[in-house]
Amino acid sequence: MNRVLRLAIGSLIVGLAVLSLKALAWALTGSLALMSDALESLVNVAAALAVIAALRVAKRPADSNHPYGHHKAEFFSAVLEGVLIVIAALFILREAWAGFLDPRALDAPFLGMAINAGASLINGAWAVLLIRNGRRYRSPALVADGRHLMTDVVSSVGVLIGIGLAIATGWWILDPAMAVLVALNILWSGWGVIKGSLSGLMDEAVSDDELDEIRGIIATAASDDVAIEAHDLRTRHAGPVTFIDFHLVMPGETTVETAHDLCDRIEAALMAVLPDARVTIHVEPEHKAKHSGIVVLS
User: Fold this and answer.
1) How confident is the model at residue 275, as a pLDDT?
2) d(CA 70, CA 10)
3) Do 218 and 175 fall within a single domain?
4) Are residues 282 and 143 part of one domain?
5) Do the domain assignments include residue 254?
6) What is the pTM of this model?
7) Residue 152 resides in a domain
């Protein structure tokens, strides 16, 4: 079992623990704001299950029906998580409206707040771990899960502040008001998760910084050889895999063996920095050049 899948399973375990604590806080207090917080944790558990399933599919090797692999399965998981977040937010808004119509004092608010705060600390620590390792292993599903958990932490802090103000002032209408704010925050988070995942499903290119890095690697690897230029560089990403393809212009008299060796060196240089890269190089004769004199990228 690889580390990314172990982290996803860890998210499920942490999500169940946090959900249990927040549900207990809600049951003790009857707070709509704490209910909204618990409901978001229920979404976290469902999302963790989706991530585990997606990661298992994404790791399958390429086959005749999927010659480029199954890497995009992770993006579908992230889209599903975003949809679940939106559904949860709409449910919270409905319950908050009922709370506005009939606000009431909370039961055992301090104990409920303490339990909720403990659950939020667990969530925060796990969110940082997921984001850090998701970026390290280039897993959009783990990064999306971590960002959602961090949004959950922010929401929880706001909920605790709101309940504290309600206790101090006696304005119990602050409880459903905080639930509304949590719902709006969840909606924004869900849109961010969906938007980020759709970029991968639409074969969006890598970031400008990463593209500049790729340009530099190709230029350096080819500069001491017979290559004239590289052009028509294209990239896309699918989970941890970065697809790179470009045209490499070489003198017409270059042998196939020489051209092949250079392509191997360029590919090795790219994979030294991007281990999961898939590189395709199309060799062209000199008359196909778009520039001259140096190895350039356009």
Assistant:
1) 81
2) 23
3) no
4) no
5) yes
6) 0.59
7) yes
